Amino acid sequence: MSLTASATFDASGFEGFLEARSSEPQWLTLLRRESFSHAEAMDWPSRRSEEWIRTDNRIFQLHKYAPPQVPGGELEIPDVAQLREGIDPGGTMLTVDSQLAVETLDESLAAMGVLFGSLERFCNEAPDKVRPFLYTVVDPDYDKFAALHAAFWSGGQFLYVPKGVVIEKPLYIGSVMSDGGIDTSHTLIVLEEGAEATVIHESNSVDPAAGGLHMGAIEIIQKPNSHLRYVNVQEWGHKTYHFAHQKATVDRDATLQWTVAAMGAGLAKVNQSVDLIGPGADSQVNGVLFTEGRQHIAYHTQQHHKAPSCHSDFLYKSAQQDKSRTVWRGMIKVDKKAQKTDGYQRNDNLVLSNHSRADSIPGLEIEADDVRCTHGSTTAKVDEEQIFYALCRGFTRKEAVRMIVSGFFQQIFDRITIESVRDALALAIARQVREYE
């Protein structure tokens, strides 16, 4: 897609977007119209707010991009996936610029009632499984980006796992964007009581230097005693804008392991939240941020304890080289009734350049009086003594820095329970490390 868009995100472009989707159910069209009306009334986020004070979005120009097109014809699928190797998926979804290219699911899983595929398709074919959950977790009015996404989302991914169904094989989702393209996909994952699943989701551009726009959302709903491992790897091109709202609700005795790796996009702003809504709910979030060039990646995380006796563990590690910058702002929020809360939050940074920067702002907001909550952050540079030690043993400087960076992220890698994902992330980071200045 050219960066000069023929259709735009204004009222005329919105009506054209809806006209091309005239077969959508009325309830979805009404939701889109309401969200577009709210988006029109909103201003763009500005640096006057605490959330955006360290992230400048003024260079972003929405008019350069067109709303997603209705799928038409066979799509060429670029071979840019890294996480698909080494796994035997029970189902696969591939999209190009929000358009569905591949959709498969093992017959045995389909026979058990598992739904996995295009969210747009299931809005029509299984509305009773989609409508009760869509936009019950992510707030479509959170900001202008969220409202525009709710109005213009296209394609999307949907996973529904019925009560008591355990999916042994991982499910794979691959999202690819062309140079100058757009992806507005919405991911909705629903696990009923006692269900289990593993989802591996990676996003890539056709070229590491590609531009484009991703304006997306992820919603995860876990019913009591369900268990989900979700891997979300973002490697959009380094001229791509990436704006996303991602949220999970975890009910009684359910467990969520959510692994995030963000190494792409030129400007990225992500809001990630986990709400623990039932006693005994447990969440572990593992985050890897690696930036280079002039990348700017900002993550705002929240672990919200709404019920007693819940556990949350957020660990983010970030490394910055060249003139890049990361911003991590975390919050542990504990409601008054959420007694016996156990919350942990940490962000460690390794600055690999005299010109790169890391901002780390942990926070606590606690209303209960019987809790254990800890948070912290560290920022450091590579220890020259460690480099000297490696040089004396025959390693080159670049090899020494790679070992140090790999060691820095090892704590995260050790928490990832999928071996192929662990190895792929370690290799991807090692490839990007250059000699320390």
UniProtKB/TrEMBL annotation:
InterPro entries: Fe-S_cluster_assembly_SufBD (IPR055346), SUF_FeS_clus_asmbl_SufBD_core (IPR000825), SUF_FeS_clus_asmbl_SufBD_sf (IPR037284), SUF_FeS_clus_asmbl_SufD (IPR011542), SufBD_N (IPR045595). Residues 93-172 form the SUF system FeS cluster assembly SufBD N-terminal domain. It comes from the Bacteria. GO terms for biological process: iron-sulfur cluster assembly. Residues 181-408 form the SUF system FeS cluster assembly SufBD core domain. SUPFAM superfamilies: Stabilizer of iron transporter SufD. Pfam families: SUFBD_core, SufBD_N. Belongs to the iron-sulfur cluster assembly SufBD family. PANTHER family: PROTEIN ABCI7, CHLOROPLASTIC. This is FeS cluster assembly protein SufB. It comes from Neorhodopirellula pilleata. The lineage of its organism: Bacteria, Pseudomonadati, Planctomycetota, Planctomycetia, Pirellulales.
